[in-house]
Write a structure and sequence with these properties.
- The protein has 322 residues and is α/β, with parallel strands linked by helices.
- It contains twelve helices and ten strands.
- Helix 3 packs across helix 4.
Amino acid sequence: MPPSPRFLSAAQAAARLGVSAKALRLYEQHGLIEPGRTAAGWRAYGPAEMDRAAQVVALRTLGLSLAQVGRALGGDPDALDAGLTAQEGRLRGQVRQIGETLARIGQLRAGIARGELPAGIEAAIGARRALAVAFDLPWPWGGERFEPHDIGPLTFITGSLGSGKTRLAQALAAALPGARFVGLDRTAGEVTPQVEAALTWLGEDGAARSEALTALMIALDTDATLVIDMVEHGLDQACQEALMRYLRLHRRGTLFLMTRSSSILDLEAAGADEAILLCPANHAPPIRVAPFPGTPGYEAVSQCLGTPEVRARTAGVVALAG
C-alpha cells in the first residue's frame, strides 16, 4: 500500500479519533479493526478503516466492553441497546440535575425581585467546583501545609519506595469530607447486581475474575470519595488495564488511586481531567504533576512506575538504605 494523503499512520489516526495509539492496538488485538499495511509493514488507515475505527470509538464512549462492541458491530441489537440504556441513564441524570438547578435559579430570581439578596448562591444553584483540600502534611514532611488545588475526578498518587505516599493517601482520606481510605486488607463480600454487572463488563474486556478484583469492585460500588491503597494489588496486567478502561468510562465518585504500576497509571492514556500527586524520593513536599511530557515532575513520575511483571518481582521488597 503506497503512502498517500488518504491514508494515515497509527499516530495520525489516533489523533484524528481522539484516542491513544495504544487504544487502536487494543482494538486491533481484539479483531475490532484491521488497518492496512504499507510496503514497509507500517499500519495505514484509509477511509474505510477510519470509519470502522470511529464506530468502535463511539461505541466505547457509550460504555460498551470490547466484547459488546464486537457483538454490536456484528449486528447484535442487544449489545448496542446495553450501551444506549446506560447512556440514556446518564443523560437523564444530567437533565434531572439541570431541572433542579433551574428551579433553584427561579427561586433566587424571585427572591431578588422581592429585594432579598441570596446568601450562599453557589451552593443554592448547585454549582460544582473542582475538589480542594488543605491539611498539614504528616511525617516525613514535618507538618508543612499542603493545599492541592483543582483536584479532578481521578487522581493518581505515586512515588518511590519510602517516599511517604501511603501516609499522604491516608492524610487525604482524613481531610476530605466523607472520604474513605481503602487499604490492602480488602476482602470480597456481598456481590450486588451492580457489582456483578461491573465484573461481567471487566470479564468481557479481558479481566479474569478473582477475589482481589471482586473485593475492589465492591469497594468501588459507591458515589463517595475513595482513596485506594495500591489499586493494582492482586491484579495481573490484563486485569489492571481492563480496570482502568472501566473506571474511565464508568467511575462514580471522586477517586484517588495509589499506584506504582504503569498499567494503572498509563501516562499515554491519562486524560486532561486527570492529575498525579508525586511524593519525591527526597521527601520534598508532594507536588501535582500534569500527565503531559515536559511538564515539571513528569520524568520523575515515569521513573516511579513499572510494568506489572516488574512490580510482581519486586513485591514486598523493602529498601535497606536511604
